[in-house]
Amino acid sequence: MKKLGIIMIAALSFMGALVAEPAVSTLTVQAKTKVSVVSKKSMGATKYQIDQSKAKCAYAYSGSLKKKEFKLSYGQTATFYAKAQETVKVGKSTRVYYYIKSTGNSKLAGWVWHGYLMKPVMSKSALSKLVASGEDLDPSSTILKQPSAFYSTYRAYLRKEFNMTGQLTTFKKHQTRVYVSDPSLKTYASKSMSVWNEALGHSVFIKGTSKHHDLVIGTKSSKEWDGLNDGTHLYLSSSALHDKTYMDSVADTPEIRALYNQYENVSAAYKAAPSGSSEKKAYLAQGHTLYDQLIAAQKAAAPDATDYWEGVMVHELGHSLGLDHTPYLTDIMYAETSDDGFSSSVDGKYDWDSPKDPNDDRLEEPSLSNRDVNRAKLGMKLGYW
pTM for the whole thing? Predict the structure, then answer.
C-alpha cells in the first residue's frame, strides 16, 4: 500500500484579481472631458455590495460624474439597492452606471460603475448549510461560482472544510514551470502534467528549464514514501522505482484489506497465546496461510508500473495546487491516514485512519475524481495557483 507525502513549507496566501475601472485617470471628470448621459432607465430593485477587491480608491458620483458623493470603501460591508441605470459617455468611452443607495445609511447613495458591484456574499449560516448538503470534501458548482469577496471572506473556513493546504508552489498567472532533472521521469512528468492541465482546461503545469523553473522533479532514496512534495521539489522514491518486485506490494483492494486485517488479528493472538501451546501452533499455521493468501492477492491485483508512478506524480502535483489528502480511495489525493507520521498531518475537516469508501479499490493510475478536480478549482479561487 503506497505512501504519498507532502511537506508544508509555505504559509497560506490569497491573491485577489484587481479590475480597473475603464475611464480617464479619475472619474472626477476634468473640464476638457465631455460628459453626456446617453440613456437612463429604471430597473427592478436589486441588492448589491461593493466589491472591495476591485473598487479601491473609487467613488460614487452624481449623475454627470462631476461630483463625488462618497468613497466606495466607506460602504465596505453595506448592502445597497440599485433602482436605476444610465449609460454615460465620457470622451470616447461609454460605460454603464447604477444608482445605488444603502439600506442602512441614506448618505451612501450615488452613481457607481456597475463593474464595482457584486451580488451580496452569502451568510456564514447559508454557506454552512450548503457545505453540509453537498458531497463530503467536494465543493459544489455554487461554491465555485461566487464573487471574489466570498473567497476572501471565507478563506479559512473553505480551507478547513475541503482539506486544502494553502499555497505550496509558486505560480504566476496560474502557471508554474516544471523542470524534470531526472531524464527517466520525463514520460511520467509529461503525462501527469497533462492530466491536470486537461482536467482544469488550462495549461497550469508548463515545461521549465534548469535555470528557469518553479518546481523540480527528481528522485530521492526513501523506503517511507513513494512520492513527496515540499513545494519546490517533487520526489519519487528511487528505492521503490528500482525495486522490480515493488508493484507486487502496492495494490489496495477490499480483499487485500480484509486479508491484512485478519492477518494482523491472528498475529496478535499468536503473540498472546501461551508458549508451546497447541493454540499458539494453530495461530502460527493460520498466520502462514493468511500471509500466503495476502501475497497472492497483491500480486494478482498489481497495477502497471507506468500507470502507478504516473498516478503518484499526479497526486504530488495535486499538492502543488493546494490539495491535501482525503480518505476516499477513488480520489488521486487519497491517503490511508490523516497523519502518517512522516509528512505534515492533515489540518482539515476531520481525522481518519481508514477509508470512507472501503468497498472500492484504490485509484492507482493517472486519473482524477470529480472531487479532485473541484477541489483544485477551489484552490485557484483561493489564490493557491
Answer: 0.79
